[in-house]
Amino acid sequence: MLHVTDLQLVRGGRLLCQGFDLVLRPGQALLVEGANGTGKTTLLRSLAGLQPLHARQLRWQALNGGPAREAMCREACYVGHRDGLHEALDAVQNLDHLLRLGGEALAESRIEQALQGAGLDALARVPLRRLSQGQRRRVALTRLVLTRRRLWLLDEPLTALDEAARLDFTVRLALHLERGGVALISTHDSWPSSTPSLTRLHLGAEVTLAA
Fold first, then answer.
1. Are strands 2-11 and 14-24 parallel, antiparallel or unpaired?
2. In whole angstroms, what is the distance from residue 102 CA to residue 200 CA?
3. In CA terms, which of 66, 131, 143, 206 is 20 to 30 Å from 110?
4. What pLDDT score does 200 carry?
5. What is the rounded CA–CA span in Å between residue 25 and residue 151?
6. Could you write out the DSSP letters of every residue in 136-158?
7. Domain range list for the chain
8. Which residue has the higher pLDDT, 116 or 82?
9. What is the CATH superfamily name and number for domain 2-210?
10. Mean pLDDT computed over 186-203
11. 67 falls in which pLDDT band (50, 70, 90)?
């Protein structure tokens, strides 16, 4: 599904690391690890189309080069370390806005249903500025229940989540992979060992890839 050859990670004109390949087949997740400043967020943002991608070749599905990048970006759902939520809007309004921006508009009743499934129904109409960091993170991750996009790019998704919310996230991820989706996930935290089809990519002085 995704194959990137001779990938370089560049931030602010500085080369962070270079010369490695990424291969993800349907149903696989890649856990990107490494110290701060090694390029984890740069990798996700580059694949999401938010900054230039430096690679010798990109293949997405049966496409190559520029057409592959355009198609991949249309299929990508990026949830950054900063949630990208508007303080003055409530949870339903924020998710409605994000979905519309991505061309996936849904009825508000469907968004409310997803928030209820995440245990956030009592907070659905509360402005984001009144929510805790963990509650805000759960709102942002509820987008994953609503999107149809096959490539998940998630930057530190477990940050500020309690154990119940972490378990809920891993269940959602497993279902996404069972349906043939793929995911790249950055972390500096311990990761649940129950996640299926997980490969680890460690960014640092030397890039290592291990199943």
1. antiparallel
2. 29
3. 131
4. 87
5. 11
6. HHHHHHHHHHH---SEEEEESTT
7. 2-210
8. 116
9. P-loop containing nucleotide triphosphate hydrolases (3.40.50.300)
10. 76
11. very high
